[in-house]
Amino acid sequence: MARAREVILGVGGGIAAYKSCDLLRRLQDRGYLVTVVPTPSSLNFVGAATWEALSGRPVTTQVWERVDEVRHISLAKDADCAIIAPATADLIARIAAGRADDLLTNLILAIDVPILVVPAMHPQMWLDPATVANVATLRSRGFKVMEPEVGRLTGDDIGPGRFPETAAIIEKFEEAIGAKKDYLGRKVLVTAGGTRESIDPVRYIGNRSSGRQGAAVASAALNRGAEVTLIMANSQLTEEESRTLQGVRVIPVETAIEMHQFLEEEFPKTDVLVMSAAVADARPSQYSEGKIKKGDLQQIELSENPDLLKSIARLRDKQIVVAFAAETSLDIEIAKAKLVAKGANILYLNDVSEGAIFGATETQGIVLTSNGAQIEVPTSSKDSLAELLLDQALIQLG
Ligand code: CTP
What we know:
The protein contains 14 helices and 19 strands. The protein is α/β, with parallel strands linked by helices and about 400 residues long. Helix 10 (about 240-245) links the parallel strand 11 (about 225-235) and strand 12.
């Protein structure tokens, strides 16, 4: 489940609820988008305002709120995974019995995604045969239930029942969802889409790039734990594709010159640059403030745009640069020359003749690297290519 992103954080009515505030923050640090669903009783410990402020999302506890959204179903549709922390004895019992008496328990019945349960309660309650049986029921149904830590509880009592450390919960959670976080602490800068060079207020010179490949790289990098900035020129993403960019810092631009300015600002701060944008090689020498009449359109004088990659290379420190080569044949020699000319570490060569690849959801080509690797990419999704490019960039980062 490499793309798990949308997380439901269910919060039960135990004192450890306050520790879940830190859990929420640390999940966000790792690129997860978290919706908090507290039980009504847990609001005695941490109020809805705290969860709303921390998550930046609405927080409700009953199916009777925001009824028009049918929240238990709409949240269920969007969720990739869930954590229930803390899970009290009562909440575990209600889930085991299949009850649906608040939003969280309704939601748990409605979702079919990996769920990590993090119990926290008094040792006597944890060891009670009823709880033991309920936990066994949850495990038999595929829930991952963490063992609570042994130690001092809220009072003087000592035993199993303590809420585990945030880091331990996140480790178990990522194990449960099979997440790969090999880009944690890394900054990834991506350019995507096609620049538009204005002729007059109505017309522009543009290209067929949809921004899909760059968006796929940005989304994959975010999933792998990176902090991601995406300089996006005129994308044609669907609403669903745009949703995968939540958590990515998006800088919208129009022209090559604008993209250049932001690249110069952002490049020194980054570890990896993926230059998937289709940058116009030239722009009209003059922009006409007024619409040019059709009789005057015989010729448009052009000026060459800077080669952004080449010019950015002079700011280079230890950055890994991934370039694209959109050609109308898969000529390895041209690609090798481009890899060197652009000063890139990795180059993806693809054949865009006859309207292929630009705007599509699939791609096909060859990845070349400065250390001599040559990887054939058979027809695959742009998401798979994104993962492959990030794998190669990571190898070169060391
Ligand atoms: N690129 C760039 N600045 C430009 C043109 C392209 O930085 N003015 C980048 C693209 O983002 C891509 C790579 O250079 O990563 C190769 O782009 P491509 O269009 O294949 O090659 P060009 O350099 O434009 O060369 P040509 O059009 O002659 O093939």
